[in-house]
């Protein structure tokens, strides 16, 4: 969709990055207080309004005729997405037995990965048939139906309230965590490990592959989503390695180092065979998923009453990576643009321009690899009673 958007709004890569990153501003701002929002209004209304905002956002995006209208639509989409995951955790804690809480969380993560998979080849195929605007309009109609289903099906099990004591505990916990060097370092690690997803896979992977191997959009999209496939596989692999090694940080360092090596290989572009690139992207997805251990680290690091705030803080910092690096990679592409245009008025970038832009990813990961040596290990602080532990995590997330 990148070329279509650049042609529609007559924008450069840097502006396309700004358009895409508009989603992250409301998401980041709402991530920390969304637990209090759920306590005040309940799951039913929060998810209904979230789905409504997302549907309206994608509808406005499909009808947008100017760059500013598209930015506003993306902003609305980000606001609608902010409380979704935490809402799923609350539904799981209210309606499912404690021993099933982890299974529901795992299912939620799988569904999230499915969303990323659908945004690859299936989306590219539909866009090639009916165009991006009609595709977005159809998505808004599906969203409207889901909004109605949520309103009539979802129910709050308990009456919601958010007391002054809850708000004071929230602010006290946030203040304590913001002052922690280790929390900032772990959150920064997670953010930089997310850059390959948010800045590369979600935005520039398809045009990079099209340029490197002269592929059609659908084929390039089907290859790019292998990073999501690998991430889904790795999500269950890295925690097992951490248990075997008895350490979160050692495994996080390994995952970071492997990601650096694999993205250095990806930088070679068409200098390596296409099949090798496909395998590298799948492996890169598996390596990137090692970042999930940062949330386990946060859970073990925080006091029970601060777990929810800590997870929200970490996720908020993580999402800053998209806000910063999506436009930054676009700026680097424009910096090395040699002046060529397609017939539709879209800028043509050379393989070297893509290599310079993508080189930011291993550089960032190389820096964060060394940051991990200044963080305390927390693996030994975790509890051995997993069902009880999961219940405590979910309750504290909801109380944050």
The top-level CATH class is Mainly Alpha
Domain count, please report it.
Answer: 1
Output the number of helix runs. 20
The portion of residues assigned to helices is: over 70%
User: What percent of residues are in strands?
Assistant: under 5%
End-to-end CA span: 38 Å
Shape estimate: globular
Radius of gyration based on Cα positions: 21 Å
Which topology does CATH recognise? Growth Hormone, Chain: A
The unreliable regions are: 383-400
Structural class: mainly alpha
How many distinct beta strands? 2
Q: Report the biggest beta sheet as strand number plus sense, adding barrel if it closes.
A: 2 strands, antiparallel
Instruction: Please list the strands of the largest sheet in the order they lie side by side.
Output: 1-2
Query: Per CATH, which architecture?
Result: Up-down Bundle
SSE string, helix = H, strand = E? HHHHHHHHHHHHHHHHHEEHHH
How would you characterize the overall build of this protein?
The protein has 20 helices and 2 strands. The protein has 400 residues and is mainly alpha-helical. The protein has one domain: MFS general substrate transporter like domains (Growth Hormone, Chain: A), CATH 1.20.1250.20. The protein has a two-stranded antiparallel sheet. Strand 1 (340-341) and strand 2 (347-348) form a beta hairpin. Helix 8 crosses helix 9 (132-153) and helix 17 (307-335) packs across helix 20. The longest helix has 33 residues, at 181-213. The radius of gyration is 21 Å and the shape is globular. The two termini are 38 Å apart.
């Amino acid at each position: 969709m990148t070329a279509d958007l650049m042609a529609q709004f007559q924008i450069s890569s840097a502006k396309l990055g700004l358009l895409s990153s508009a989603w992250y501003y409301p998401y980041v701002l709402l991530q920390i207080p969304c637990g209090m929002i759920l306590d005040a209004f309940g799951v039913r209304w929060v998810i209904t309004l979230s789905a409504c905002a997302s549907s309206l956002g994608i509808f406005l995006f499909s009808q947008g005729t100017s760059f500013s209208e598209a930015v506003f639509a993306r902003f609305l989409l980000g606001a609608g997405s902010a409380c979704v995951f935490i809402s799923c955790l609350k539904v799981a804690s209210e309606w499912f037995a404690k021993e099933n809480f982890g299974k529901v969380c795992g299912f939620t993560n799988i569904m999230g990965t499915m969303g990323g998979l659908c945004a690859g080849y299936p989306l590219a195929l539909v866009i090639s048939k009916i165009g991006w605007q009609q595709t977005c309009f159809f998505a808004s109609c599906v969203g409207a139906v889901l909004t109605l289903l949520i309103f009539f099906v979802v129910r709050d099990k308990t009456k919601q309230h958010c007391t002054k004591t809850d708000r004071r505990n929230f602010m006290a916990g946030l203040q304590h965590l913001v002052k922690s060097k280790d929390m900032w370092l772990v959150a920064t690690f997670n953010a930089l490990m997310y850059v390959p997803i948010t800045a590369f896979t979600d935005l520039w992977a398809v045009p990079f592959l099209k340029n490197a191997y002269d592929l059609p959009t659908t084929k390039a999209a089907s290859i790019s989503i292998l990073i999501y496939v690998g991430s889904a596989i790795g999500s269950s692999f890295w925690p097992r390695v951490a248990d075997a090694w008895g350490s979160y940080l050692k495994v996080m360092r390994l995952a970071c180092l492997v990601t650096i090596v694999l993205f250095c290989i990806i930088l070679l572009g068409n200098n390596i065979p296409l099949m090798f690139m496909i395998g590298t992207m799948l492996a890169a997805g598996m390596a990137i998923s090692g970042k999930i251990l940062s949330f386990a680290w946060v859970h073990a690091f925080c006091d029970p009453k601060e777990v929810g705030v800590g997870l929200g803080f970490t996720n908020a910092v993580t999402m800053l990576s998209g806000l910063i690096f999506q436009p930054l990679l676009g700026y680097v592409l424009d910096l090395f643009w040699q002046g060529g245009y397609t017939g539709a008025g879209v800028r043509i970038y050379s393989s070297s321009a893509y290599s310079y832009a993508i080189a930011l990813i291993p550089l960032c990961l190389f820096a964060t690899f060394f940051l991990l040596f200044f963080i305390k290990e927390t693996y030994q602080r975790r509890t051995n009673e997993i069902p009880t532990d999961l219940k405590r995590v979910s309750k504290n997330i909801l109380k944050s």
